[in-house]
Design goal:
Blueprint lengths: L1 H5 L4 H29 L4 H26 L2 H28 L6 H21 L6 H30 L3
Helix pairs in contact: 2-3, 2-4, 3-4, 3-5, 4-6, 5-6
């Protein structure tokens, strides 16, 4: 950006374009995550490990860069966008966790949640203004409740099949 400024480009226009580019890029990424989560072709760990963690890394870098490159109001706008993106991603993941019916892979489920919690914790440290600790705790709680309900259904089914009287 400094090279463009030295070449005589307008500071305000460059900053506005930078914010616009980030917004467009992250809008596309969020839509792609929604699509991947709804298709359920990847298991939950693979989705979190490869897609969501990369998204959160890119978003963290953008927020860190926006603090240095953009004006205060544009940085505040970027923080607002990031809050919306992460809220949407957590909602998408909650839906994906709830529709997961993988019977024998509780360990995969827990590892996916662990990776997600770790990545969100890192994000919180890099962007202290945006704190998603309570949101991620709610996601973990909802995922645990879902797993318990699913396991209870499996146990009922097992006892009905093998002990019918």
């Amino acid at each position: 950006m400094e090279v463009l400024l030295q070449m005589g480009e307008d500071d305000t226009e460059l900053k506005t374009q930078c914010l616009s580019n980030w917004k467009e890029e992250f809008d596309e990424e969020v839509e792609r995550l929604r699509l991947l989560a709804s298709e359920s072709k990847k298991d939950i760990l693979e989705l979190v490990d490869t897609e969501v963690c990369n998204f959160l890394t890119n978003l963290s870098l953008a927020i860190s860069s926006s603090q240095q490159l953009l004006s205060q109001s544009q940085h505040a706008t970027m923080n607002g966008l990031a809050h919306g993106y992460i809220t949407t991603v957590i909602s998408v993941l909650q839906s994906r966790f709830e529709c997961d019916k993988n019977d024998g892979e509780c360990a995969v489920y827990v590892r996916a949640l662990d990776k997600l919690v770790g990545k969100i914790s890192t994000f919180n440290r890099l962007s202290p203004i945006l704190n998603f600790s309570s949101s991620i705790a709610s996601l973990v709680m909802a995922a645990a409740v879902h797993q318990v309900k699913h396991s209870r259904c499996l146990l009922k089914y097992y006892f009905i099949i093998f002990f019918p009287y």
